[in-house]
Specification:
Number of helices: 14
Strand content: 15-25%
CATH architecture of the largest domain: Alpha-Beta Complex
Number of strands: 16
Largest sheet: 6 strands, parallel
Distance between the termini: 165 Å
Number of domains: 4
Radius of gyration: 42 Å
CATH superfamily of the largest domain: 2-enoyl-CoA Hydratase, Chain A, domain 1
Shape: rod-shaped
Oligomer: single chain
Helix content: 40-55%
């Protein structure tokens, strides 16, 4: 009896141990799964360059990805000289309306958030800068030099006032320095990272991304949102192949040069049909230029002026305008180049150096081709009957005043313009009229030679 009880107790005790172990493992597994389930994710994207439709597409796609994944926050690393107002406004609207907190980090050291970058930084839920960075100078600038401080350009004043009001509204919504936001637009005010923190333009300064994520851990945002970023998983959103290609072609200077080179190629193919090189090279450059033009604000009048200028230059090669059309074409090309893009910020617009190089090269090439054409027109003809003018020959039938001469291995009917010329005398062709060569003695000494008669005369 006691032995049976003892055995039964042993069995019961062993089952309890296994049960407790199973429960313990289940609890640990549940904790691990729970930890994995609440692990936060940070979506990180980098914009290093101008604000344009390409960067706009990248940032909006990043915000959409973060919303779909339920990310803790979006980290935008920014380094920009500015950009297009339309793209900037779309990004700011997306930031202000984002359910996922957006952190804009101006980095690395030496980076800047200028012009459009000011609006993107102020619109973030949390604005941060790395040491050695700066922010500011958001005043609109006209490509032709208008719109500077003190200018009386009404359109630029309107643009500046509109931008200033937009900056104030962003600063008010995010609780930032409204006065400085306005001054950044109206008087191009700029601040270092330390100054921006002191003047309540940004929220913090961090050395790098790791320091930033550690600093914002536990950060309380309006609406009761508390960030948890210390051990978060960071996922990087990279540009697609199309975005990378468009990013390269978003440079107005590159697109402008490709467009002009493409026109050169087609003009070359027009003058040298059948070779194919001009068509291939010019067509490729034009297609790349058109691919880039779809992401830039293009002025149709600028394109029309460039095409008209090129047409005038080509037309001058077929008309006796003596350079007048070429001069008009150069002026039209220059005007078209200055108005090709509707970009108010010259820091990302078409540079004066590029315009001067392209227009100057076109002018020099046109003058060279035109001068060569004029020289060719002035040269005597070397083919056909016109090519005989100026050539030397020998009298084979006495010119009295008409007879026969041997010129360039052929016999020709000729007429002397200076009286009788005996056989054997050297003559030079002066002109040709109705197939008859008008000649004169080639050397005055021939006049002293005795006249040859008899069988030497052609029958």
């Amino acid at each position: 009896m006691h032995e049976g009880l003892s055995f039964s107790s042993t069995i019961h005790y062993g089952s309890g141990m296994r049960l407790r172990r199973s429960i313990g493992l289940a609890v640990v597994l549940c904790c691990l799964l729970s930890c994995l389930g609440v692990a936060t994710e940070i979506i990180r994207v980098t914009v290093d360059g101008s604000i344009n439709p390409v960067s706009r597409s990248l940032i909006l796609r990043t915000l959409s990805t973060a919303r779909a994944r339920g990310a803790e926050l979006v980290l935008l690393e920014l380094n920009t000289p500015g950009g297009l107002e339309s793209s900037m406004r779309d990004i700011v609207a997306a930031e202000l309306g984002s359910e996922i907190p957006v952190v804009v980090f101006v980095s690395p050291s030496g980076a800047r958030a200028a012009s459009a970058g000011v609006f993107l930084t102020m619109a973030a839920h949390i604005a941060a800068m790395a040491p050695g960075t700066n922010i500011g100078a958001a005043h609109p600038v006209n490509m032709l030099g208008g719109g500077q401080e003190g200018s009386e350009d009404t359109s630029m004043d309107k643009a500046a006032n509109d931008a200033a009001a937009f900056a104030r509204s962003i600063a008010e919504q995010r609780g930032r320095n409204v006065a400085w936001a306005e001054s950044a637009v109206l008087v191009s005010s700029s601040l270092s990272a330390t100054e921006a923190l002191e003047q309540d333009v940004i929220d913090l300064i961090a050395d790098d991304v790791d320091s930033l994520l550690a600093a914002v851990d536990g950060y309380a945002l309006p609406g009761g949102i508390v960030l948890s970023t210390r051990d978060a998983q960071v996922s990087v959103v990279r540009p697609t192949l199309r975005e990378r290609l468009l990013g390269l072609l978003a440079d107005p200077n590159l697109v402008y040069v490709l467009f002009i080179v493409g026109l050169y190629g087609l003009i070359y193919e027009f003058f040298h049909p059948g070779i194919g090189f001009g068509l291939a090279a010019g067509g490729t450059c034009l297609l790349l230029a058109l691919f880039g033009l779809q992401v830039l604000p293009v002025n149709a009048a600028g394109i029309a002026l460039i095409l008209f200028g090129m047409a005038l230059i080509v037309l001058d090669a077929f008309t006796p305008a003596n350079g007048i059309l070429t001069a008009g074409g150069i002026v039209a090309l220059l005007a078209g180049s200055l108005t090709l893009f509707d970009i108010a910020d010259r820091s990302i617009g078409l540079s004066w150096g590029t315009i001067a190089a392209v227009v100057g090269a076109t002018a020099l090439l046109s003058v060279f081709v035109l001068s060569k054409g004029l020289l060719i027109q002035r040269r005597p003809a070397v083919t056909g009957m016109a090519g005989l003018i100026g050539m030397r020959g020998e009298v084979r039938r006495t010119l009295t005043p008409e007879g026969r001469v041997l010129v360039n291995g052929e016999y020709w009917a000729a007429r002397s313009v200076e009286g009788r010329i005996p056989v054997g005398n050297r003559v030079r062709v002066e002109r040709i009229e109705r197939g008859l060569l008008y000649v004169r003695r080639d050397d005055e000494r021939e006049s002293n030679r005795s006249e040859r008669v008899g069988p030497q005369d052609m029958p």
